[in-house]
TrEMBL record:
Span of domain GST N-terminal: 1-82
Protein name (record): Glutathione S-transferase
InterPro entries named among the record's database cross-references: Glutathione-S-Trfase_C-like, Glutathione-S-Trfase_C_sf, Glutathione_S-Trfase, Glutathione_S-Trfase_N, GST_C, Thioredoxin-like_sf
SUPFAM superfamilies associated with the record: GST C-terminal domain-like (SSF47616), Thioredoxin-like (SSF52833)
UniProt domain GST C-terminal: residue ranges: 88-213
Transmembrane segments: none
UniProt-listed PROSITE patterns: GST_CTER, GST_NTER
Length: 213
């Protein structure tokens, strides 16, 4: 069987998929695309993946986009030991909560601030001021949940798909300072440092050259 192909766009959610592939110990090739000077997606990527969104994978004849859908597929097909998607119903549900929250809670609020920065200065400031309390609440929730356990991983005592999805979201928001100024979340910082120190994440970064700039 031919190895999986990961279509990797620099500074994107594609690191989530590379991280997951490494955690599963799967063989995969990387088709790499750098961003344009203005940060936009290059035409070459859009010609390869019609929707123009990263990540995308090809496994045999199947092409998949959207990082959460890719994670679900890879875990269902290749995670035979249920390392990243636990068999326990309650734990599996928690993993899926964080997978959904990585986009539907955390990035949806933070990215609105980033996209709004292109508006008139006064409007951008009003938008950021309005959304910052919500970003703080999002991070407060994550902080409180991490304190309930060891703080090393989001669900249980080992890496799961929840960590591979949430890691990018939190790293990106903190790096860009999207609504996070004025407050610190020590448990979040420790968790992120732990996740990014895992061998699987380090291998993913080395293989893809991932950076947040």
């Amino acid at each position: 069987m031919a190895p999986i192909t990961l279509y990797f766009l620099q500074t994107s959610r594609a690191i989530r998929t590379a991280f997951l592939l490494e955690a599963l110990g799967l063989d995969y090739n990387v088709e790499y695309f750098d961003r344009e000077a203005d940060g936009s997606t290059p035409d070459a990527f859009r010609k390869t993946i019609a929707v123009g969104r990263a990540p995308a994978i090809k496994d045999g004849d199947l092409v998949l986009v959207e990082s959460a859908a890719i994670a679900e597929y890879l875990c269902e097909r290749y995670d035979k030991d249920s390392k990243l998607m636990p068999t326990d119903t309650a734990m599996r549900s928690q993993v899926r909560i964080w997978m959904s929250a990585s986009e539907g809670t955390f990035l949806i609020h933070a990215l609105a601030i980033m996209y709004g920065s292109g508006a008139a200065p006064e409007s951008a400031e009003q938008l950021a001021a309005g959304l910052t309390p919500q970003v703080h609440r999002d991070f407060d929730w994550l902080e409180s949940e991490l304190k309930k356990g060891s703080g090393k991983f989001l669900v249980g005592d080992q890496l799961t798909a929840a960590d591979t999805m949430m890691g990018f979201s939190i790293a990106f928001i903190l790096k860009m300072g999207l609504g996070t100024k004025g407050k610190e979340w020590p448990s979040v910082n420790l968790w992120l440092a732990n996740v990014e120190s895992t061998p699987a994440y380090q291998r993913a970064v080395q293989k893809t050259g991932h950076t947040l700039g």
